[in-house]
Amino acid sequence: MIGGISMFSVTKIISFCYGHRLLNYSGKCKYLHGHNGKAEIFLQSEKLDPRGMVIDFSDIKELIGSFIEQKLDHKVLLSKDDLLIPFLEKLNEPFFLMDENPTAENIAKLIFNFARSKNLPVVSVKLWETETSFAVYRKD
Predict the structure, then answer these.
(1) pLDDT value, residue 62
(2) In a domain, 3, yes or no
(3) Is 35 in the active site?
(4) What is the C-alpha to C-alpha distance for residues 17 and 2, in angstroms, rounded to an integer?
(5) Catalytic: 129?
(6) Is residue 1 part of a domain?
(7) Is there a domain that residue 20 lies in?
(8) Catalytic residue list contains 17
(9) In this model, does residue 1 exceed pLDDT 60?
(10) Could you give the number of structural domains in the chain?
(11) Domain-located, residue 53
(12) What are the residues facing 40 on neighbouring strands?
């Protein structure tokens, strides 16, 4: 119960692989490298649908999973300002451009905003970059 309101929640985990590099960064992540990432999408609602669900897990997989598979999975995620873009284009390598640096925080925000755009009752997205490191994006 949150503030006297009863809530139901579900979480769907979607795994994917991606490469990236960080601009304006002095550590190892300034170099092109990859991750076996995992997105945890947390959804919440005061009411259940006619089936007795916040949302069916397969619906989450269909909506958000297909976005991740088509746009992020096995792609190089780059800032729109990255000088590597022309080289990847020339080699016909798949990449996805982000308005911001492709940090775990910004990837979580990207997935969150996509879920919101599909009118899903998303509360937060946790992006696991490694088995021991994750970032969370939520809107209050």
Answers:
(1) 95
(2) no
(3) no
(4) 35
(5) yes
(6) no
(7) yes
(8) no
(9) no
(10) 1
(11) yes
(12) 13, 126
